[in-house]
Amino acid sequence: QVQLAESGGGSVQAGGSLRLSCAASEYSYRTDCMAWFRQAPGKEREGVARVYRPYGIIIYADSVKGRFTISQDNTKNTVYLQMNSLKPEDTAVYYCAAKANGCTWDRGLYGYWGQGTQVTVSS
C-alpha cells in the first residue's frame, strides 16, 4: 500500500510563493505517475500538475502554466510543487496522488492519495 504525505501548505498574500512536498512511501511502478490536484470549496477536484517519473514527462493545467513547477527527487521519493505568483483563485486543498501505468487528469484512476494540505491566498 502506497502512502503519500503532503506538507508545505499555508497562507500567503497574492503574488507570494509556497512549495508543497509529497513524500511517497515507495518508488515503484505504483508511483510511476505522481500528480497534484486541488479542490476549492464548492468545486470539483482538478488536476494541477503531473509527472510521469520514468521519463520525466511533465504536464500542467493551463491555469497554472508559467507559475507552478513540479519536480521530483527520486533519492527521497518526493515530488514538489513550487507555486509562484499565487492568486486568490489558487486557494484550495491540494492533494498529491499516484498511479501506475501512465498519467492522466482523470482523478478516478488514481489509486493513492495524500491527506491534502490547505493553501490560502489572500488579496
Secondary-structure-based class equals mainly beta
For the record, give the distance between the C-alpha atoms at the N and C termini, rounded to a whole number: 40 Å
The total count of strands amounts to 11
Helix count from the secondary structure assignment: 0
Residue-averaged pLDDT, rounded?
96
Low-pLDDT residue intervals, each spanning 5 or more residues:
none
Overall 3D shape: globular
Radius of gyration: 13 Å
Topology order in helix (H) and strand (E) letters: EEEEEEEEEEE
Give a short account of the largest sheet: 7 strands, mixed
Please bin the fraction of helical residues.
under 10%
Description:
- With 123 residues, this protein is mostly beta strands.
- It has strands at residues 4-7, 10-13, 18-24, 33-39, 46-52, 57-60, 68-73, 78-83, 92-99, 112-113, 117-122.
- The strands form two sheets. Strands 2, 4, 5, 6, 9, 10 and 11 form a seven-stranded mixed sheet that branches. It has a four-stranded antiparallel sheet with strand order 1-3-8-7, with no helix packed on it.
- It is globular and about 40 Å long.
- The N and C termini lie far apart (40 Å).
